[in-house]
Amino acid sequence: MSGHGTPTPMTARNGNALRGEARVPGDKSISHRSLILGALSVGETRVRGLLDGEDVLATGAAMRAFGADVSQDGDEWVVHGVGVGGFAEPEDVIDCGNAGTGVRLIMGAMATTGISATFTGDASLRSRPMGRVTDPLALFGAASYGRSGGRLPLTMVGAATPLPVEYELPMPSAQVKSAVLLAGLNAPGETRVIEPEATRDHTERMLRGFGAELSVEDSKDGRVITLTGYPELKPQSIDVPRDPSSAAFPVCAALIVEGSDVLVPNIGLNPTRAGLFYTLQDMGADLTFENQREEGGEPVADLRAKFSPDMKGIDVPPERAASMIDEYPILSVVAAHAEGRTYMAGVKELRVKESDRIDAMAVGLRANGVEVDEGEDWWAVEGRGAGGVPGGAAVAARLDHRIAMSFLCLGLASQKPVTVDDASPIATSFPIFESLMSGLGGQLDRSNS
Ligand code: S3P
Q1: Is 326 a catalytic site residue?
Q2: Measured distance CA(42)–CA(38) in Å, rounded
Q3: From ligand 1's centre to the CA of 101, what distance in Å?
Q4: What CATH class has 28-237?
Q5: Fold designation for 10-26+241-445
Q6: Domain range summary for the chain, segments of one domain joined by +
Q7: Pocket of ligand 1, candidates 35, 124, 175: which has the most ligand atoms within 8 Å of its Cβ, to mutate?
Q8: What is the C-alpha to C-alpha distance for residues 421 and 396, in angstroms, rounded to an integer?
Q9: Which pLDDT tens digit goes with each residue over 411-439?
Q10: How many angstroms separate the alpha carbon of residue 269 from the centre of ligand 1?
Q11: Threshold 0.85, pTM exceeds
């Protein structure tokens, strides 16, 4: 799974309006957690709507390597778990592919069991910082031996007699929060995470759903999450909602391609994930939430996005960053089609995603005729107005699915085609992207120009 095989160049050109219904795949964050929590329960967990992207499949393979039984039964995934503390030592290296969420959550889940495991991934994942999880996991008593900068490949030696931990997150990261909470499952007493800025709360919601004792309080220091160790997690039946981060691509493409009208049904609007949609509305997008309802305790709606020629650049509120952190690349593409400057601050986490996303987008947007300024933790896009982006250049996807999809959406609306050097990473999170966008009328082809 390390690497994505032969590069697949892809070109997007402006032709048709995008019209119709876009059924995007299951939520990536919830899919990873369904498999991991299923593996930590005793009995059979069934999951419908699981994202069958490479990232999640790598987590499924890892859960098998730790002793759980993970299989497919028609449209459902079935996990027979080994229980909290029940992981067996894997016989081989665990390859998490491109998935930061997979590797960091799994490290957390094994850190308080008396086994060792060695983790690796593709070139993107091997370049990403792991100290952010190995530091708090060391407080439980887990040791780790990685490459310089704590990078993969890395061997973790779990704590045989773990201690509970209180940890204040030094950066807004749901992955780090989740790693600490999953480690806390197999530690005595109470493990506490203090989160100064709220990040996606799927782990907390799902741990409760699986029967763990977990409380969340708002304090002057932020959200305080307290988990009681050694719960018996009960297997669940899970319906994975569709991914708002995947919905972002057909929604944003519809806003910038002339004549478009796209319905994206059944999207979770959990407030810790939905920041992009409110930002687009603040810019003047014709984006509406239809049929608003609650499903499985989460707010859900059908999103309708129509071509919006009058969008204006805005200052995106930095306090919204965590709730839209994966959406800045595609937001910058919309910003290029708005009037005026869009300023995005408080986003230094973008520099340590699957790629340095500020740099990747800035380089590619500039090549396609859009002016971008940047600093360490901010960037700004000078909008060229609807239909005003020249395009015409090839860009590097840098093994980053969201960079590849963002530039393909740019090409659907720009004056000249845009080519991405390698679209294969899209399969990590949105394997049906090409067919879905083509089905709406988008002109994508597997070529260099
Ligand atoms: C995720 C958390 C975020 C996000 C990633 C998924 C998760 O990462 O970027 O795509 O499922 O917990 P960080 O925790 O690094 O912010």
Answers
A1: yes
A2: 8
A3: 6
A4: alpha beta
A5: UDP-n-acetylglucosamine1-carboxyvinyl-transferase; Chain (3.65.10)
A6: 10-26+241-445, 28-237
A7: 175
A8: 5
A9: 999 999 999 999 999 999 999 999 999 99
A10: 16
A11: yes
